[in-house]
Amino acid sequence: MENRRVIVVTGPTASGKSVLALALAEQRWANGRATVINADAMQTYDAFPVLTAQPTAEERRRAPHVLYGTLPLSEILSAARWCTLASAEIERCHAGGGVPILCGGSGLYLRTLMQGIAAIPDVPPAIREQANAEWQRVGPAAFRARLAEKDPAIVTRLKPGDRQRHVRAWEVVEATGRPLSEWQRDAGEPAPWCFTTVLLAPERAWLRTRIEARFDAMIGQGVLAEVRAVFDRSPDPRWPGLKAHGAPELFRHFRGELQLDKARQIAIDHTRQYAKRQMTWFRHQLTPDLVVDPLSSGSTSAVAQYLTKTEV
Length: 312
Description:
8% strand; Histone, subunit A
């Protein structure tokens, strides 16, 4: 039987997913033909390789990495579009006799790929512009209240202030006459692969410390210049890629609204909050095959042994 295995390495931000995925890609069981496929929304954009902790040139030499830094900040990356891109890379890897390793913490994207996606029709650009204009006109709170009248089920799943997802839900119901929550219930066929999901579940205090240390390391690696280069281009604030953790806070610093120390602390706090939300999502939405503590000694070997035992 043709090997249709796909490894999924996921977990909260800063938990060590990229390190584990690379180590697995180099393990003997992968026969040296594994490809690491990005499953993190922000790492798909091209302007913030340091800020979004994309693989380094050295790491990419050690194993193939795809879908990292491939889109401009202005482009919208939906779960459906990512699934199309990831599916093509999975098939390409399998065709070469390799093992695809999906690596990232965008849980919705992974769930969509594994369980299927609703075939929502394309939204005309004019309706998308109208939805964005309405958000701008009435403000986030009023927009959310009005969306709740159109699609109450979707609002309960959206974080207040999340412009992209609120506008997306609004434009879908305006374009199709049907709430996004209903479309999502009618997911299509699941992907035709055999997934083995590894969840990194670190201790909370360790993760909080690691998030702070990683952000400080990014500053030492030139993230200020990286973000400043984008800031100086006066980008449209609606660009999805500008939501990368740390970018909004550093933009405020460059505008003179925050001292660097304050921007740093707010960025770290927001990233910690995001990691907490990720873990909550994983607990309720994901059924991993293997849960790993990244602090445990020999965790990479344990995962590789598990994968060997469960080869298909």
